[in-house]
Design a protein that fits this description.
The complex is a heterotetramer of chains A (33), B (220), C (231) and D (214). Chain B is an all-alpha fold and 220 residues long. Chain B has helices at residues 3-21, 24-42, 50-79, 82-87, 93-123, 129-154, 159-185, 192-217. Chain B has one domain (3-219). Chain C has six helices and no strands. Chain C has helices spanning 3-25, 38-66, 69-101, 109-130, 135-165, 178-214. The termini of chain C are far apart. In chain C, 45% of the residues are buried. Chain D has 214 residues and is of the alpha/beta class. In chain D, the strands form two sheets. Chain D has a six-stranded mixed beta sheet, sandwiched between helices. Chain D has a four-stranded antiparallel beta sheet with strand order 2-1-4-5, with helices on one face. In chain D, helix 6 (165-173) links the parallel strand 7 (151-155) and strand 8. Classes of the chains: A mainly alpha (33), B mainly alpha (220), C mainly alpha (231), D alpha/beta (214). Chains in contact: A-C, B-C, B-D, C-D. Chains B and C meet through helix 6, helix 7 and helix 8 of B and helix 4 and helix 5 of C.
């Protein structure tokens, strides 16, 4: 059971983190004129 | 502009340079001796398991020797900026690529010529036509791929890291099929014919692909 | 709240629905118990990764033939997203293997080719970073992307063939009951949607980097008058 | 018919502008010197003209052909001497030239003629890495004229040629269109009626001066 939790926790962390980081990068790049 | 003549000229030039400087052959010889010694001490080899372990040692040594040979073949060109001089001629990049691959493969075959008899001497594994055929067939495909990625890596930073990272995944099919061919030629279960057939298919696939890609890699 | 953030929100919403399906709707596997639920995202992200690497392949081929910077940007976007999904696939695969086969790793065809996939495209990203930005990086990366894409099925086939040469346990093939299949297909669809949004976002980032950082204008086709004068 | 027609040649290394909008026209058998201090963009310009570098923007036509699409056909037409000699150290001078004859698809009889043109006949059988810097430069020039190019691109060939540089270059440049990058103003005046001055990647006009007879 623990492996199930760790597996999905990892997936959410990696995909979520990557999504947030990418969106933030867009905002930063768009601010540079 | 006959590509064969260009390829032979490039191969001859590489082998002549190597013959005169002799940087590469000693380095490759060192791998072979090390592989044999470590193999001998690392694994408890006896007549029963020799046929399973010897091919492993053979491929390990060939892969490392190959990486060094291919890395060197283009590194020298880059240092002397002679790669650009070659590309500034009307010679087709595919022919130049074929010549470089041929020269590097020749060096590998030289290593195999030393390694295979040594293996059968030290580990008692059979040294037959089948074994030689399997190794040579694998060398063809591995040389084409190794040479292409050496050409890419030569003009990029962090080459020592990148060459194995790019080349090994593509060599895996040859190591699997070649490894099994050699093992079955040395008496283990497994179909030699199938393995050889697979090696030939991979050779055709990757020689064609690398020739198509050479145009884009050896350009400016 | 730009349109990329709105799209991201929609994709996350979809994934939450998929999660509900995975944990609430799908039945528990009789044989393996709850840990079998890893299967849904593990396989979906593998397929999504392979889809991303198809984008890298197509982008690379188009770039090599007509030098279009847009194709190269798609390839860059596809590679990064693909590697992220492959990482998810690998880690979930290992976490699933541990309770069932009592080992994190077995050299079976799927795991091995996924690992090779990861190595190749990590190499792809490294080549792109290490080469001279612009034409050289794009061209070398395109070649690596094309060979990488072809190598994975070849490795997968070689390992499977190698397995048949050694009498070993045949991996049980998992015929899925209806609810599981439905959950899987739905999760797959959501994951592919998420991957598409990721690629769009990364494409936007690459475009901005090109404009703001590398100051690379889209290469207008350099057409010169062609009077017929052979040298 | 012009040998080179270039307009708006621009090149950036990442965000580093190396060349900005350089225009250039060169007629057959015309000699042009490119002057400018280090970093002015001389080498970048010459590499583009020699089709060794693809510019970020701009149009280039050599012998009436689009220089980027017809690279291979133009290799018969032009010879290029870069900064680095680009020779094979373990091969002798003659072997180096023979190798490039094969690649240029030119008969090996040209080797002796080229060696003679640059005064290296006595060193034909010496290994390239045993030649002095100046002799290596001469060998690189010999290689660039093996296939009798109509256009020569020379990037600071006088760097280590020694006193008879001007005579040797004049001989080699004779009856060819030439673009010669150099620091040596006197050499430029003597060999090239036209000069192009580069400063920070921009061209400051193409000066045409009467040849000053020393």
């Amino acid at each position: 059971m623990i492996y199930l939790v760790i597996a999905y926790a990892f997936a959410v962390a990696l995909l979520g983190g990557f999504l947030v980081w990418s969106l933030r990068t867009i905002r930063e790049l768009e601010r540079i004129q | 502009m006959n590509p064969l003549r260009v390829a032979m000229a490039v191969a001859r030039k590489d082998l002549r340079s190597e013959w005169r400087t002799r940087e590469l052959v000693p380095a490759l010889a060192q791998f072979i001796v090390l592989a044999l010694l470590i193999g001998n001490f690392g694994f408890q080899i006896d007549s029963r398991n020799a046929a399973t372990i010897a091919p492993g040692i053979l491929w390990l040594a060939l892969v490392f020797a190959g990486l060094v040979a291919f890395g060197r073949t283009f590194a020298a060109e880059r240092e002397q900026a002679s790669l650009e001089a070659m590309l500034m001629t009307p010679a087709s990049p595919v022919a130049i690529f074929a010549g470089k691959a041929l020269a590097a493969a020749a060096l590998l075959v030289l290593c195999e010529a030393v390694m295979l008899p040594a293996l059968s001497l030290f580990f008692g594994t059979p040294f037959s036509g089948d074994v030689v055929a399997a190794v040579l067939l694998a060398t063809v495909g591995m040389a084409a791929l190794g040479c292409l990625f050496a050409a890419i890596v030569a003009r990029v930073r962090a080459r020592e890291l990148l060459l194995p990272l790019l080349t090994l995944p593509l060599w895996i099919p040859f190591i699997i099929a070649g490894g099994l061919a050699v093992q079955s030629a040395m008496g283990l279960p497994g179909s030699y014919q199938q393995a050889i057939g697979l090696l030939i298919d991979f050779d055709i696939l990757f020689v064609v692909l690398t020739s198509l890609a050479a145009r884009f890699v050896l350009d400016e | 709240m730009n349109r990329y953030e709105r799209a991201a929100l929609a994709a996350v919403g979809l994934m939450l629905v998929a999660a509900a399906a995975i944990f609430l709707y799908a039945p528990t596997d009789a044989l393996q118990g709850p840990v079998q639920r890893i299967f849904y995202l593990h396989v979906s992200s593998a397929i999504a990764a392979y889809g991303c690497f198809a984008v890298v392949l197509v982008g690379g081929v188009i770039y090599l033939f007509n030098g279009s910077i847009a194709a190269d940007r798609f390839a860059r976007a596809g590679a990064v997203v693909g590697v992220v999904f492959t990482t998810v696939t690998l880690v979930m695969g290992m976490l699933w293997a541990k309770p069932i086969w009592n080992t994190f790793w077995t050299w079976d065809a799927r795991l091995t080719s996924t690992l090779v996939l990861w190595i190749i495209y990590a190499g792809y990203l490294l080549v792109r970073r290490m080469a001279e930005p612009g034409r050289q990086a794009a061209r070398f990366a395109a070649v690596v992307g094309i060979f990488g894409f072809i190598d994975v099925p070849v490795v997968h086939f070689s390992v499977t063939w190698w397995r048949t040469q050694h009498p070993g346990p045949i991996v049980v093939n998992d015929a899925l009951p209806a609810e599981m299949l439905a959950t899987f297909l739905f999760t797959l669809a959501c994951t592919l949607a998420l991957a598409t949004v990721f690629i769009a976002i990364r494409y936007r980032i690459e475009t901005l980097i090109d404009q703001k950082v590398n100051a690379v204008e889209p290469a207008e086709v350099i057409a010169a008058p062609q009077p017929e004068a052979a040298p | 018919m012009s040998v080179i027609v270039a307009d708006g040649l621009t090149h950036h290394f990442g965000t580093e502008p190396a060349l900005e909008g350089v225009d250039l026209v060169l007629d057959s058998a015309e000699h042009m010197a490119v002057l400018g201090d280090n970093g002015a963009g001389k080498t970048t310009l010459l590499r583009i003209l020699a089709t060794a570098l693809h510019p970020t923007a701009g149009r280039l036509q050599i012998a009436g052909l689009d220089a980027f699409r017809e690279k291979r056909r133009l290799r018969h037409y032009l010879g290029y001497v870069a900064h680095a000699p680009g020779l094979y150290p373990a091969l002798t001078a003659a072997e180096n030239l023979e190798f490039f004859c094969d690649l240029q698809d030119v008969s090996r009889s040209r080797v002796a003629e080229a060696l003679d043109a640059v005064g290296l006949t006595r060193f034909a059988h010496r290994r390239a890495d045993q030649l002095s810097r100046g002799m290596q430069q001469r060998l690189a020039i010999a290689r660039a004229i093996l296939h009798e190019p109509r256009l020569l691109i020379l990037d600071e060939p006088d760097a280590s040629l020694g006193p008879d540089a001007a005579d040797l270059l004049a001989r080699v440049m004779n009856d060819r269109a030439v673009v010669l990058a150099t620091h040596d103003q006197a050499l430029a005046n003597r060999l090239c009626p036209r000069t192009l001055v580069l400063r920070h990647g921009r061209s400051h006009g193409t000066a045409t001066r009467l040849r000053v007879v020393q």
